[in-house]
């Protein structure tokens, strides 16, 4: 059975109601003459626990807002398969992430600019950062944070840093502070310390209601193909085919009068592009997909951060493990939260790098204080390739972990060579879910081929743009959400400028 074809006058369409998609939907629908349709493959999944920091993160919470699957075996890490996790709900990964909010250092954006990415220097992006941040105080950096750390171990770590004269950074996200040092993290939390995901922040119910004439949200619907007109010298995106996520026989063709914007994230976006015939010819031919454009850049690069967690014993009551091992503590904290909305349940997961040591026996009297050694700027790129033509079949993600010897050496030095690296990585190395660069912003014939130009337009295809974490020219040595949001803000600014220009001309 098929839904009828629909036409939304003057529609822009955003596929993927994730972090960037939601911000775009908010910004674009501010203008009444711009109709936006957001298509999200999963459901709202709003539960009591989904706003509680400790219970809502992918690592701690229920599975209803995640998609988890195994990566391709990692050749340079004993063929280990890594766990791939992506958000799959309204708000995307912002519903399940660690809520850590870091801009990263200005030099990395300036590096993008120096590589020719016009409009993407730190100064160019500064207004985009500010636009999505909420002021708590007078300082330049102004997102929210807890005023105190939750666990004494974090305080001890700060004291130890002071003792060693290791610099303490008071504002992690200020470009005026040194990058090296110890700092308290900032988070997406509201005034009461609850998770403040993009779903809650950018498309609250009253806003959606007030814009119902030009903002449409379609959930549990997957975009499985972009449609093209091939009448001109280059393909033009004309709309998308949507299928009910749980039943492929229910489908809908949507016609986009202005353009199609893909915001499916660094794994979902190359998958949709390849299923639509935009990808390396050999990959498409192998899947018997009609080639719309032989596009070597799509999914050919993929970057992520590899983390090696280290942990140290601390007293049990300094650790989240107390919740697990001491039922009375768990009950006390639960009641504290219910009655006063206070206590451990408000602790964001990554302040709880005081984490369980799986190697310990259940009866261990210790808590753990964890440190992660992270490869921030991996040099060996991975790939994303289709495994089948079914959108619901996750693609093959090959991280190419430690594919360059230089990275192995760096890690060995950091771990002080005290253990056998391969064995250690095999047991402990993990992705920290910062997938990016799979449809990078660069020239199409760059040595590492690009997919979109500086205005996020897909090379050689009309009316198709990408706005999500897949377009970063290269991975940043920080968490990625701030920049994914800035990409959406920047895109919205570009569209508004285009609209203003055409109004002035008319
Ligand atoms: C477990 C985890 C923890 C993280 N922790 C942090 C952190 O603490 N701080 C930080 O800065 N970053 C963190 N990140 C990374 C950050 O969440 C992402 O970089 C960011 O969300 C990327 O935004 P996006 O818009 O590109 O994609 P996403 O937010 O992943 O959104 C993509 C959306 O597209 C939808 N979709 C995909 N394919 C289709 C399709 N074919 N049709 C319709 N819909 C589709 C998905 O369901 C999803 O909602 C974390 C990520 C994960 C997974």
Automatic annotation (TrEMBL):
FAD binds at residue 223. The keyword Flavoprotein applies. The active site is at 434 (proton donor), 479 (proton acceptor). The keyword Flavoprotein applies. Residues 265-279 form the Glucose-methanol-choline oxidoreductase N-terminal domain. Keywords: FAD, Flavoprotein. One of its GO terms (molecular function) is oxidoreductase activity, acting on CH-OH group of donors. Its cofactor is FAD. It holds the Pfam family GMC_oxred_C. InterPro entries: FAD/NAD-bd_sf, GMC_OxRdtase, GMC_OxRdtase_N, GMC_OxRtase_C. Belongs to the GMC oxidoreductase family. This is GMC oxidoreductase. It comes from Sphaerobolus stellatus (strain SS14).
